Each structure stands twice: as C-alpha cells, then as structure tokens.
Amino acid sequence: METFRKQGAKKLYLGLMPACNIEDNSRSEFKYSFFTMRLFRWTYNSAITNRFYGFRSLSFHKRRYRAPTRKVYMATKSRFPIKELFFAGRMIGVI
Fold it and tell me: Global pTM?
C-alpha cells in the first residue's frame, strides 16, 4: 500500500467479493432461493472456485484493510437462476 501511496494513488480498489457474507434470509419479508444461497456459499468455500478467482483471499484483504463494503442483492423470477448467475459471473470477470 505504501508503494501505491508513493505513486500518488488516493484509493486502492481491492475488487469484488461475490458470494461473501451470504445471509440466511429465511425470516425475511422477501422470498429467497435456498438453491442460490447454497450455490453462493459453496462457491465462496470451495477450493476449486478459489483457484480461478480469490473469493476468500479478497474477502480477507478487504476485512484486514477495512475497505468499505456494501451489500448487493440479486432479484430474478427464476427458481433456479443458473443462466442469470452465469451472466453475472461473466460480467464481474469470475467466468
């Protein structure tokens, strides 16, 4: 971080943390997909997916350097939103 400061960087963007801090919203007023929640949790915890995108390492570094975070929600009409998740993964560079 010191190197970036010396080069004049005012902000350091650490990247997106998809699948981090997935909460159990079963008591929420909104419907949620158990399948999607489990898929996100598996993605975050899987050694396979962390090889090509550092879900857990990004999360660790953002917590360590106290980077600001904000929640992002996904809404879909599909019960099993495989297609939507695939396109979202492509948009953020995971796939």
Answer: 0.58
